Amino acid sequence: MIKQRPIELLAPAKNLECGIEAVNHGADAIYIGAPRFGARAAAGNTLEDIAELVKYAHIYHVKIYVTVNTILRDEELADTEAMIWDLYRAGVDALIVQDMGITRLNLPPIPLHASTQMDNRTPQKVKFLAEAGFKQVVLARELTLEEIGKIHQTCPDTPLEVFVHGALCVSYSGQCYVSQACYGRSANRGECAQFCRLGFDLVDADGKVIAKNKHLLSLKDMNQSENLEALLDAGASSLKIEGRLKDVSYVKNVTAYYRQKLDAILKRRKEYCRASSGKVTLQFRPQLDKSFSRGFTDYFVHGRNPGIFSFDTPKSLGEVMGTVKEIRGNYLTVAGVKPFSNGDGVCFLDEQGKLQGFRVNRVENNKLFPQEMPRVKPKTTLYRNFDQEFERVMQKKSAERKIAVQIALEENAFGFTLTFTDEDANQVSLSLPREKELARTPQTDNLKNQLSKLGNTPFEAEEIVINLSENWFIPSSELSELRRRTVEKLLEARRICYHRMEVKMQPTAHSFPVSELTYLGNVMNKQAYSFYQSHGVKQIAPAFEKEAPEQAVLMFCKHCIRYSMGWCPVHHKVRSPYREPYYLVSSDGRRFRLQFDCKACQMKVSAEE
Questions:
Q1: Is it the case that residue 220 has pLDDT exceeding 80?
Q2: b/e code 34-67 from CB counts within 10 Å (16+ = b)
């Protein structure tokens, strides 16, 4: 018999509403920000909302992970410990953490997952984390299928979480200090200023301008929808959608899209199974280009490729709609590939490469009547970044998730027994004491009809069996009340039988992969220092946020501007026409030096000396 590996689709939740809709649209697990100390400071949630989400999600065996993935000051540890106990009491399934100091706190028996902010990209690092007690590891986004495979081979029993969709950071997560250096806002403390989305001039050592006001560090958004099966085969167990700051429409659409793609794979591949319960029925067709994106890339999953950046704009272009044919007084005609609707948002890149946009007031065939006429020229490509009709659908109920139940009505010595058995083998039986009396008309169809009325409950009747010796009469009101009470008992049984992993972090002393930690170790507090010291690290530098070293590298990027320009001496074997070093110059005049480490295949960004 094939041992099945559970596969979870992990969706983001900005708030309770997004979390509930992620459940409804097919998530197997959800990650949501804690009230404090999450890597998206703007995405904190109350304990009450988290508890409400847990209660709803667990009905469908959907897990709730809470992010507590910032580095912490010494004076914050006590509050963090208290908050973690509150989250445990609220029923949370696991915490996603970055700071090793958390492992030294007095924790409840709640699993810890290693955040991607820990920079998890080698088999040695993941093996260390697994042996330290982490129950799931979130891998760096930059890894190839081969690299993921090697990690899985080294740690076959450790669930590996990989990002499959959403915004990309240009720097390795947890290794970006430019926001702190320039603005005093630490990405490692949830306050990233999105420096990488700014426009820059690229100049060479002689001051020659190579590129003017281009978004040279702004990557397209990840889309691994065509690589899901390959990721599973490489060893991924959790497929993660980015987006804890995204709206509910994004969560609905993207979660539903990946649910459909994943279900098609699970139907064919019996060695993998779904990690939660309930069949999802959609009332719309998911389309990724309807939700926010900067264009799509599968990043480095198949190795280095040139199509990962979006130099013109860091904003969402949306879907290609056609080109401008001609401009008349108050309208323009479009040679379109798709039809527009009244209220659509349209954008285009002007002659300077800047993103411009307008709202469509009225559509007549291929004529668009904007609210204000844009300055646009014929043959310009038009994009739709707001689909009025699609958003109207998204604002309504757009999915339903139902748990299959088998229903059996039987008689007993003193009346009748109603039994519900759900798809996870939970079973409840309730009795209706009642003197039996024969009906004047056939009752089977009426009994089945009454028992199938599960409307607003999480359940859907898959099979109804009426096993009575005679055509007994049961009043509809009594049968409805019996059905209602049985549903309540089954819900209670599902909550009681829900298995929440409980594991207490134990002290360990195995060797960390390196014996010296620079500022890249992000050691912010004494407990984190103690953790690494007990695991054999001899020299431990403080975090950048605590003590900024001189001439520090501020970003470590697998994305390489020299490669993107076609001048990589390793891959292209082409000499650049410009003299190095190159510099990025921001609009406020700050200069950042680029270094190219070809041995590590990395680009490093430093403030000019």
A1: yes
A2: bbebbbbbebbbebebbbbbbebbbbbbbbbbbb
The one-letter code for the residue type at 6 is: P
Name the residue among 191, 187, 230 with its Cα closest to residue 544.
Answer: 187
253 neighbors 27 (Cβ within 8 angstroms): no
Chain centroid offset of residue 302 CA = 21
Q: Of 95, 152, 165, 108, whose CA–CA distance to 126 is shortest?
A: 152
The DSSP bridge partners found for residue 239 are 9, 162
User: What is the rounded distance in angstroms from the CA atom of residue 514 to the CA atom of residue 191?
Assistant: 29
3-state SS class at 311? coil
Question: Residue 369 has which token pair?
Answer: 């009547």
CB–CB of 505/133 below 8 Å?
yes
Going by C-alpha positions, the residue among 339, 303, 307 that lies closest to residue 321 is: 339
| 15/469 Cα distance (integer angstroms) | 52
The confidence score (pLDDT) of residue 338 equals: 87
Residues 174 and 116 sit within 8 Å (Cβ to Cβ): yes
Rounded CA separation 290/124 (Å):
40
Element (DSSP H or E) covering residue 145: helix 145-154
Number of residues that make up the chain: 609
**What residue spans of 176-327 are helical by DSSP H?**
178-183, 228-234, 248-268
Phi, psi of 45 (to 5 degrees): -135, 155
What is the C-alpha to C-alpha distance for residues 317 and 218, in angstroms, rounded to an integer? 14
State how far the Cα of 120 lies from the Cα of 534, in Å rounded to an integer: 20
Would you call 287 helix, strand, or coil by DSSP? coil
CA torsion angle 143 147 149 151 (round to 10):
-100
**Which positions ≥6 away from 44 have C-beta within 8 Å?**
33, 34, 35, 36, 38
Which residue type sits at 78? A
Of 230, 273, 238, 246, nearest in space to 115 by CA: 238
- Per-residue pLDDT tens over the stretch 547-604: 999 989 999 999 999 999 999 999 999 889 999 999 999 999 999 999 999 999 999 9
Read off φ and ψ for residue 376, nearest 5 degrees. -135, 145
User: What is the chain's Cα-based Rg?
Assistant: 28
Model-wide pTM > 0.70: yes
Which residues, in sequence order, are CB contacts of 80 under 8 Å at separation 6+?
A: 36, 37, 68, 72, 102, 105
Dihedral through CA 380, CA 382, CA 383, CA 385, nearest 10? 120
- Which of 282, 244, 171, 308 is CA-nearest to residue 10? 244
What lies within 8 Å, CB to CB, of 212 at 6+ separation is: 201
Reduced to 3 states (helix: H, G, I; strand: E, B; else coil), residue 276 is coil
Q: Which residues pair with 539 in a beta bridge?
A: 516
